[in-house]
Structures are given as structure tokens and as C-alpha cells.
Amino acid sequence: xxxxxxxxxxxxxxxxxxxxxxFGQYRAITAKDDRCLSxxxxxIFTRYLTLVGAAYALKRVxxxxxxxxxxxxxxxxxxxxxxxLNFAATMQCPVIFCRNNSFAISTPALEQYKGDGIASRSGxxxxxxxxxxxxxxxxxxxxxxxxxxxxxxxxxxxRRLHNKGWWNDEKEAKYRTDIRKEILxxxxxxxxxxxxxxxxxxxxxxxxxx
Length: 210
Known about the structure:
Elements: H1 10-14, E1 21-25, E2 37-41, H2 48-60, E3 67-70, H3 79-90, E4 95-98, E5 103-104, E6 107-108, H4 126-130, H5 141-151, H6 153-164, H7 169-191
Parallel strand pairs: 1-2, 1-3, 3-4
Antiparallel strand pairs: 5-6
Helix pairs in contact: 2-3
């Protein structure tokens, strides 16, 4: 499954403390940190109320932390999302709702909301975030090519780093070489791992299997 448009969310993790809580969604893995990731959800985010409950718990015990969640534009049409917003606002919970890549699988945000979407910042801009389907069925090839060229978060961030003098071709070449070695090393390690036992299917499902 492609995850174009998700790359910029790595900057969200950079704003968090290691004791903050993340409620992820399967394509928001760029913000994942093993020390603060609470759980990953399926493509329709179903953890809004759990999220604000966790945030409220942090507030009750006096911790100066927050809970953050990631979800798709389409998931914002779920009833739980609105209930969670109300609870978070009423109880003044330290919670952050994150996500906006302008599409809900096949439905553009402009066709889903009366307003201008669910976020006030572009999810394709790393700086703005910080301070399995075939998309050709509903996006024209020209639209995708235009996005890749002008609004791709990696492309725009790369261009800005170069313009600021913080990055150059030499650093780029070394970085790509180092990352390739790291990826191949991880592949090699993963291929040698044994498959889990079938009994693992029930791990963390029931308290006491019967």
C-alpha cells in the first residue's frame, strides 16, 4: 500500500517527549517511537475516546504530558471523532489530533466537509506540522504528477534544506549510501527470524484464554 503524503508526519514525533502517548494509525508509522507508542489502529480510526481518556488520565495525575493521535480525513466523519472533540474541549484534556492529507481514500476533503477540512496546517509541509488502493481510480495522472513535483513533502523539504544551505549533494549521496546499508542489514536480519507460533494469534486478545 502506498503512503505518499504521510512522510511529513515524522516531524510530529520530534515535538513529543518520550513519556507522551501516541495513538497511531497504520500509515502514521513515521511518528512511531517504541517508548511512547500506545497502539496502532486500522484504517478507520476507532480510538478517539480512548485517546481523550488517556489524555484526561494524564491531567488527573498531574503529568505535564499529552496524548496525540493520527487519523485519516475520512475517519473525521465518524461520530466518535466529534464526541471525542467535545470531551477533550469540555475536560480541557492535553490532546492533539493530527492528520490531513486531503483525501479520504477516494473522497477529496472538499467533497466531505462544508468547511476547508479538518486541519489548519498542510499535512504535506514538514515545517507546518512541526511549528492499498489504486489512486488512479479517482485521481488523474496529471494531478499526481503535479503533486509529486510541487507539493510532495519530501521534495519541498529537500528544496528548503538546500536553499538554506543545510544540505548538499555530497551529504545526500552519503546519506543514501548509509541508509541503503541499514535497510539491507534489517532485511537480512528479518529474513533469518523464525515465524511466530500459531498460539501467538491469541496473545493480548483474551485475559485468560478458554
